[in-house]
UniProtKB/TrEMBL annotation:
Name of protein: BBS7 protein
Coiled coil: 325-352
Gene Ontology terms describing biological process: intracellular protein localization; non-motile cilium assembly
Organism field: Chordeiles acutipennis
Lineage: Eukaryota, Metazoa, Chordata, Craniata, Vertebrata
Keywords linked to the UniProt accession: Coiled coil
Protein origin, superkingdom: Eukaryota
UniProt KW Ribosomal protein keyword: no
Gene: Bbs7
A Pfam family of this chain: BBS7_pf
InterPro entries named among the record's database cross-references: Bardet-Biedl_syndrome_7_prot, BBS7_GAE_dom, BBS7_hairpin, BBS7_pf_dom, Beta-prop_BBS7, WD40_repeat_dom_sf
Domain BBS7 beta-propeller: 10-309
Domain BBS7 platform per the UniProt entry, residue ranges: 484-586
GO cellular component assignments: axoneme; BBSome; ciliary basal body; membrane; neuron projection
Entry annotated with the keyword Coiled coil: yes
Length: 705
């Protein structure tokens, strides 16, 4: 184990020596330490270790083109350092970047670096090209120069696009199905053409795109059917020994996957393995034992884990365990000694701390610990996932919110949750819940669903199992239009409502208001004079188009409630800054019917589910009394047969029906609010109507009111 590691900070050095086949592992951690070691007889044998410093954000291997890549380069802060495979530093290059380096790629004498929004290309440490991206850059890659005969950098950007550059200019954008977090060359070399790039997204999708000189050609794409974590690292290696390189994938929920190309086109998942924490880096190669390939993974808290192809049972039928008994026994006894030594050390340090804390000059020290957190909107079920990962075991997490939100069930979550009653009036507390974790839990996943129009802050108080007790608070913004997600395009044929703003505001000011209202908008003011963003509501499927520039903004949506929320929030924000806004709107009556048609199938489904769930107990009682249910109608028999699935689904989506009722009520109030009519007195009548009417009846009620 090393210190906490960032994404893409572990590599395998090529085997050195004529006969050597075993590779050496090099890994950089957030304490700034580079550790290089080999494995002999199951033990880690150190090659070199550097002194601590600034945290290492990336580690790459380099060297002259078409020679073994055995020079080690690390990015720390805004500096790039180079080390030989023996640990001697030969390069210290202080870049002109004002921010810390987030991503790095090396190809021969070319160095490609990215901070949050800035891309820089250096050749022999001399500045060559520069590009300012429209959204955050997560990773950078360059197509192999020896194959494509040109320098083609590719940036993976948060706004769901790969930006392909030529010099300092944007050549084109390639759309991908989710925010790309990692890039790798297909097959390790870009495929036959050298132009194929594998990307992994933060919502767990995987795909290959061919980056030609003029346009992108999507090759294949795998969705995330199993609802697994986001992809953090990718490698290509022939682990199955069939002459074709497999795709090795590491995810942020600890799942390691091996994809095999059985047919020439789409990969097939062959093996998977679950680790207990997120996988930051993944590599294939021979490390521990000659003749047996392995997959090496480094996880967030710094564990390096190897999975081997060495068979547990020998070909002669005897178990390998017997043959290993001698080797194993010595390993176990050395581990026992190490454990005893560590326990003694802990006791001594604890006594030392107790004495120093009781002395007259005592200074209380708060132990530092790092938390890796991720708060993202899931498109499939319109809920937010909050993932908290701590370098040591978590004791408990307290979740507090000042806006109404629902906590949803997560299958992978083994923590015990308890709710506290909270008074929403004086403290504006709407949720207080404590998750008590089982021993050795380092990763916790929560799911929440917010209500659009209600905005505020969700806070997580994370307490790990360390002494003295200490806690970190992490805050997450629930935005007014929290269930909207960025999308590449929208359907312009839908009936749209328009909100128009005019006033004495700058481009930066209106952009900051949009950032406040909507998720997935880059905080940095876009370059240029105007910008257009498209969004889709993940719960209803309605859409929003926002176009704005200095002094004016246009917002179009097929849902009146979205326009109403924007109008209220934007006018509030402008009032705070004493800016006079001229607000006008154009309401399309047809849009209300259109939105109701989108909501109604969901409403019908949830009403039917609720009715079925209410019948289950009565039907089960009948089953117990009668012993036989053949006399029941088929629809009631099917409810009994599917009872467990129905209850499970109902439990997974608490308050789903209330949400839909709330949305229809808001739509009803908003429709008439724009006409200047208050219809709140008619809401009870609307709720009565909802219980038993069909789609046409509901539309008729809206038109008659």
């Amino acid at each position: 184990q090393v210190g906490v590691t960032a994404q893409k900070t572990m590599r395998l050095l090529p085997a050195s020596g004529r006969k050597a086949t075993q590779k050496v592992v090099v890994v950089g951690d957030q304490d700034g330490v580079i550790t290089c070691f080999g494995i002999k007889k199951g033990e880690a044998v150190p090659v070199f270790k550097t002194l601590p410093g600034q945290k290492i954000a990336r580690l790459e291997l380099g060297g002259a083109l078409n020679t073994p890549q055995e020079k080690i380069f690390v990015a720390t802060g805004s500096e790039v350092r180079g080390f030989t495979k023996r640990g001697k530093q030969f390069l210290s290059f202080e870049t002109n970047l004002t921010e810390s380096i987030k991503a790095m790629h090396i190809s021969g004498a070319d160095l490609f670096l990215c901070a949050s929004y800035i891309y820089n290309h250096y050749c022999d440490c001399k500045d060559q090209h520069y590009y300012l991206s429209g959204d955050k850059i997560n990773d950078v890659l360059c197509l192999p120069v020896d194959k494509v005969n040109r320098i083609t950098p590719v940036l993976a950007c948060q706004d769901r696009v790969l930006r392909v550059l030529q010099g300092s200019d944007l050549l084109y954008e390639a759309e991908v199905p989710g925010p790309p977090t990692v890039l790798a060359l297909n097959n390790g070399n870009g495929g036959d053409s050298g132009e194929e790039i594998v990307y992994g997204t933060s919502d767990g999708k995987l795909g290959v795109t061919q980056i030609t000189g003029s346009k992108p050609i999507p090759k294949w794409e795998i969705g995330n059917e199993k609802k697994r974590g986001g992809i953090l690292c990718i490698d290509s290696f022939d682990i199955l020994g069939d002459g074709v390189k497999e795709l090795l994938v590491g995810r942020d929920d600890g799942v390691l996957e091996i994809y095999n190309f059985e047919s020439a086109d789409d990969p097939v998942l062959r093996y998977d393995y679950a680790l207990s924490e997120s996988i930051a880096s993944i590599q294939g190669g021979c490390v521990g034992k000659d003749g047996y390939d392995e997959i090496l993974a480094s996880t967030y808290s710094g564990w390096l884990t190897g999975l081997t192809t060495e068979p547990v049972h020998r070909e002669d039928g005897s178990s390998a365990e017997l043959k290993l008994s001698q080797e194993m026994q010595s390993k176990i006894s050395s581990l026992r000694n190490e454990l005893e030594h560590l326990q003694m050390k802990v006791l001594q340090e604890r006594e030392k701390y107790q004495q120093s804390s009781q002395s007259s000059t005592a200074v209380s020290s708060v132990p530092a610990f790092s938390v890796n957190d991720k708060f993202t909107l899931n498109k499939d079920d319109a809920s937010y996932s909050l993932i908290l990962e701590v370098q040591t075991a978590i004791d408990n997490v307290l979740v507090q919110s000042d806006v109404p939100i629902d906590l949803l069930d997560v299958d992978k979550n083994s923590a015990v949750v308890s709710f506290s009653s909270c008074d929403s009036e004086p403290n504006s507390n709407f949720l207080l819940a404590t998750y008590r974790c089982q021993a050795n839990t380092t990763r916790l996943e929560l799911k929440v669903r917010s209500i659009e129009g209600q905005y505020g802050t969700l806070q997580a108080y994370v307490t790990p199992r360390i002494q003295p007790k200490t806690c970190q608070v992490h805050q997450y913004q629930i935005k007014p239009l929290s269930l909207h997600q960025r999308t590449h395009s929208i359907d312009h044929d839908r009936p749209m409502n328009t909100l128009m703003l005019k006033g004495q505001f700058s481009f930066a000011e209106i952009h900051s208001w949009v950032v406040f209202c909507l998720p997935e908008v880059p905080e940095k003011t876009p370059a240029g004079e105007s910008i257009t963003f498209y969004f889709q509501n993940t719960f209803l499927g309605t859409q929003l188009e926002s176009t704005y520039r200095k002094g004016e903004g246009y917002f179009k949506s097929d849902n009146i409630s979205t326009i109403s929320i924007l109008k209220d929030v934007l006018s509030k924000e402008a009032t705070k800054r004493k800016i006079n806004l001229n607000i006008s709107y154009d309401i399309n009556e047809e849009s209300v019917r259109h939105t109701l048609k989108l909501i109604y199938p969901k409403l019908e489904y949830q009403q039917l589910l609720a009715k079925k769930v209410h019948l289950i107990d009565a039907l089960r009682e009948l089953q117990v009394h009668e012993g036989n249910v053949d006399f029941l109608l088929p629809k009631y028999r099917s409810i009994l047969e599917e009872a467990d699935q129905l209850l499970e689904e109902y439990k997974r989506q608490p308050a789903h029906l209330e949400r839909l009722y709330g949305m229809i009520t808001d739509l009803f109030i908003d429709k008439f609010k724009f006409k200047g009519t208050n219809v709140k007195t008619k809401v009870p009548l609307l709720l009565e109507t909802l219980d038993g009417c069909d789609q046409d009846g509901l539309i008729a009620f809206f038109q008659a009111a």
